[in-house]
Amino acid sequence: MIECVEWGGCGIFVWSVYGLSLLTFIMVGGWPIINLWKTKNQIYKQLHNESMQKNQSID
User: CA-to-CA distance for 16 and 23, rounded, in angstroms?
Assistant: First the structure.
């Protein structure tokens, strides 16, 4: 490993490694999370629409 005394000297190196690891995490493990979040929103919308229809039928 490269040891840096000054952050400015190897900041780009650290951030590039951090960015790459973050990118790989998003590509590998992030997509299921994003898909889960989207499906959760769809389920919430569906439940909301059903409850709205029930309220209208009661009125």
Answer: 10
Enumerate residues 6+ apart whose C-beta is below 8 A from 7: 14
Residue with tokens 């499906």: 39
Decide if 59 is inside a domain.
Answer: yes
Owning domain of residue 55: 30-59
**Residue 14 confidence class, pLDDT cut points 50, 70, 90:** confident
Entry pTM: 0.37
Six token digits for residue 28: 């590998």
Task: Specify the number of domains making up the chain.
Answer: 1
What is the Cα–Cα distance from 53 to 46, expressed in whole angstroms? 11
